[in-house]
Design goal:
The protein is an alpha/beta fold. The chain is 35% helix and 13% strand. The chain has five helices and six strands.
Length: 197
């Protein structure tokens, strides 16, 4: 009989200790809550990512792809910044251009014909933002078929990305704009009408 009572007492003590441990764990600041199991869901579309960033995604009408040896201006195109149209026979090399070192507009339009994605920021953009954009471009396939530069067309947007017949405009810079730029680049790099060299 004594063993039975001793066993019952021991079980009671263990039960109380267990309850106390659970209560302490629940109210302890150091105990991390278990991570919820992720549930698979659909991926956001480029349009949805752009909308979340406050940007506009559009498909301007094609303005042709003729070559002309002249100095092009924003007024030569119906879209600002342009996404197609007559341009110079030469195209600008891929890369990151410092403010004030932007290639000529006709060379930039020609890059789009060869599947490049051009990311451009408005004049007066803070240096910190430009540095973040430069880092992002290099993280995207080490800058493969991308150009980053200061806009020279007087666009209204704070930032724009162009590809052949595609335009992403962002009136204000925010953290989600980077997501929109990444998604735009993934969707349209190497999608121009000319063979990509």
């Amino acid at each position: 009989m004594l063993n039975r009572y001793a066993l019952a007492g021991l079980l009671s003590v263990l039960g109380v200790v267990g309850v106390v441990a659970v209560v302490l764990f629940a109210f302890s600041g150091s105990a991390a809550a278990p991570e919820p199991t992720p549930t698979p869901g659909r991926e956001l579309t480029l349009a949805e990512i752009a909308q979340q960033a406050g940007c506009t995604l559009s498909r301007p009408p094609n303005e042709g792809a003729a070559h002309a040896d002249k100095a092009f201006k924003a007024s030569d195109y119906s879209v600002n910044p342009p996404t197609s149209g007559t341009h110079t026979p030469e195209w600008a090399p891929d890369g990151i251009y410092k403010p004030g070192d932007t290639p000529e507009l006709g060379n930039l339009v020609h890059t789009l014909e060869h599947g490049r994605v051009n990311i451009q920021y408005r004049r007066g953009t803070p240096a910190e933002t430009i540095t973040l954009l430069e880092t992002m471009v290099l993280e995207l396939d080490n800058g493969y078929h991308q150009l980053l530069y200061e806009n020279i067309t007087g666009m209204d947007a704070a930032l724009a990305a162009t590809a052949w017949d595609r335009l992403l405009t962002c009136p204000e810079m925010n953290d989600r704009v980077f997501d929109a730029l990444r998604a735009f680049r993934a969707a349209f790099v190497d999608k121009g009408p000319e063979k990509v060299p």
